[in-house]
Amino acid sequence: MTETPSIQWFPGHMAKTRRLMQQSLSLVDIVVELLDARIPASSRNPEIDRLTKGKPRMVVLNKNDMADGNITRQWCTYFASKGIPSLAADCRSGNGLKAFLPTVKEVLSEELLRWEKKGMAGRPIRMMIVGIPNVGKSSLINRLAGSKRAKVEDRPGVTRGRQWVSLEGGIELLDMPGVLWPKFDDRQVGEFLAFTGAVKDDVIDIEHLAMRLLGRLNNDFHDLLDARYKVGDTQGMEDADLLELVGRKRGMLVSGGEVNTERAAITVLDEFRSGKIGRITLERPPKTEAEK
């Protein structure tokens, strides 16, 4: 596969969001971090640990309906080994979210007991929802609230300001705008974020990105690639040729019989992001010392 150019995207409002997050930590009891179940490692903002240090934490592996369920369970086991409770969910449909509030209360069990002893049993639980752009924070809040309280759109950078949402049962959610980090030290991290739509397409060469995605799918998920696009035997095929082949199979031709590779690229990325190619997880949890 051809080398990926470094992908960097850090709009000015994200620096403001980091400051806002730090200022708001004193207002909440727990931090809920949403990750993309297809790329749990790459979708973890490395600054979140530092920014939320000292606060009770839990992880929601969202978009589990588009990820490999077996690998998601491995990730849940991994986070548990790190002392971070987690659950797998699909925030759009609500699948898996029945365990959300019980998990929150389990994480805060000691704090809830202290409140009860102080006569504060009815005090609302306040939580901060954090995650990278387009990971599903607004979908989670709207599903928990039972109504469309927060803006939901399938593109990064929609939520720009801090939003409080009150739920039944004495729960208050603080929705923060999505936060990326100033520099992706690992090229693969930037690439995976771009594959899933966490980075805006207008700062990326989408044809090159689609070629990279097809190359990875060809190497690791060929059966799914063939089932979707009927590409046949593509062993050893170059990434650019794969994109042309997909475009030709879909009849995306222009005058002279040339393939409209931009249209093919948009289709491949859209169909990967919507799960139409299949349930694909690009990252596995790190191996434990025993496994190594």
UniProtKB/TrEMBL annotation:
Specify which residues bind GTP according to the UniProt entry for this protein: N62, K63, N64, D65, N134, V135, G136, K137, S138, S139, G178
Q: Which InterPro entries match?
A: G_CP_dom, GTP-bd, GTP-bd_ortho_bundle_sf, GTP-bd_ribosome_bgen, GTPase_MTG1, P-loop_NTPase
Q: What is its main location?
A: cytoplasm
SUPFAM superfamilies found in the cross-reference section: P-loop containing nucleoside triphosphate hydrolases (SSF52540)
Is Cytoplasm one of the keywords UniProt gives this record?
yes
Swiss-Prot/TrEMBL GO biological process terms: translation
Gene Ontology, cellular component aspect:
cytoplasm
Keyword presence, Hydrolase: no
Q: Which residues form a coiled coil?
A: none
What superkingdom heads the lineage?
Answer: Bacteria
In what residue span(s) does the CP-type G domain sit?
17-182
Q: Name one GO molecular function term.
A: GTPase activity
| Keyword vocabulary terms for this entry | Cytoplasm, GTP-binding, Nucleotide-binding
Q: Where in the cell is it found?
A: Cytoplasm
Family (UniProt): Belongs to the TRAFAC class YlqF/YawG GTPase family. MTG1 subfamily.
Record-linked NCBIfam families: GTPase_YlqF
Q: What is the role of the protein in this entry?
A: Required for a late step of 50S ribosomal subunit assembly. Has GTPase activity.
Q: What is this protein called?
A: Ribosome biogenesis GTPase A
Q: Which organism is it from?
A: Acetanaerobacterium elongatum
